[in-house]
Amino acid sequence: MKPRWYASRGIANYLVLAPLKGHVVTMWNPGPDGYRGRDTISYGPELAVDSPLGKLSIPTARLPVDPKARS
Q1: What's residue 41's pLDDT?
Q2: Nearest CA among 49, 55, 44, 59 for reference residue 14
Q3: For 19-40, what is the mean pLDDT?
Q4: Greatest CA separation found in the chain?
Q5: What's the distance, CA 8 to chain centroid?
Q6: Up-side HSE of residue 41: CA atoms within 13 Å toward CB?
Q7: Neighbour-count burial of 15, counting CB atoms closer than 10 A to its CB (0-12 exposed, 13-18 middle, 19+ buried)
Q8: 42 has which bridge partners?
Q9: How far apart are CA 33 and CA 46, in angstroms?
Q10: Residue 50: predicted pLDDT
Q11: Could you count the other beta carbons within 10 Å of the beta carbon of residue 8?
Q12: Which of these, 60, 35, 5, 45, lies nearest to 26 by C-alpha position?
């Protein structure tokens, strides 16, 4: 529900940090019915996001993760 709402209002990027799963879901390319692009990236590498504010870098290696998430 939220991704569709944000996309329909032109929010360029939507990120969902999921510590219980140890990954981040990135959504981009907003349209009236939701985001047209979506990736799921495991925590570890630095996440680079192109946004209207410029290129943002989010280090994910030290984000909290449920110990059972990667098993």
Answers
A1: 94
A2: 49
A3: 94
A4: 38
A5: 17
A6: 19
A7: middle
A8: 23
A9: 29
A10: 87
A11: 13
A12: 35
Please answer whether residues 48 and 56 qualify as being in contact, where contact means their C-beta atoms are separated by less than 8 angstroms.
Answer: yes
- Cα(59)–Cα(16) distance, rounded to whole angstroms? 14
Cross-strand bridge partners of residue 55 = 50
Alpha carbon of 40 to those of 14, 24, 43, 53, 55: distances in Å?
A: 12, 6, 10, 22, 19
Residues 50 and 34: their CA atoms lie apart, in Å, by 18
Residue identified by tokens 């994910």 is 60
pTM above 0.90, yes or no: no
CB 66 within 8 A of CB 19: yes
SS3 56: strand
